[in-house]
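Blinded run. Sample ID left blank on purpose so nobody reads anything into the name before looking at the predicted structure. Input follows.
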Amino acid sequence: MKTTLSLLSLLLIFNVTIAQTTAIPDANFEQALITLGLDASLDGVVLTANIDTVTGLDVQQKNISDLTGIEDFTALIYFECNNNQITSLDVSQNTSLIVLNCFDNLLTSLNVTQNNNLAILQCNDNQLVCLNMKNGNNTSIGSFYAVNNPNLVCIEVDDVAFSTSNWTVIDPQTSFSTNCPNPCICNISANYISVGNGNGNYSFTNTSTGNYNQSH
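Blinded prediction complete.
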């Protein structure tokens, strides 16, 4: 009997240990997920199984600056993250996206070349220098807003004539090209590894920026 109980205990421990999690280093982003019922506690991680089937996500006006973790929302179709302080957005893993509203942020670069289902994009009122729309299916994008990006000179697209005729909500200095001189790199989100240090403190390791600690 004791042997059976021991084996069951080991199995439970094993299952807990291997449960896959996604790092959410931005506390405001995680709090938004908690409010939506996708997470239980503010500890810097969320169970991947809680988010990888989510098709719609609205985290607008949540004072978010870092959307690390969004890459594991692999079923996402509708994503609204406008009116935050986001400086970087990697949607290369969100290949089912149809609607992306990321206006009123601090984005300097946006690449949607992996998002060939996209139909609506609102990236206006940012600080974009680079915008790559060349996803092989630009004709499916019926709603496009990129105005109020004063440093955006060139938008890379599939077809210049189509974009010029159909995407008119841009700044006067902005034009379209199939080969902009400043192509956006389709960055894969930084790989954060979280380690609990006790007392509610978590350490996140990022190969690009090094380590930093966050307390909850």
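Unblinding after everyone has recorded impressions. The domain at 54-215 is CATH 3.80.10 (Leucine-rich repeat, LRR (right-handed beta-alpha superhelix)).
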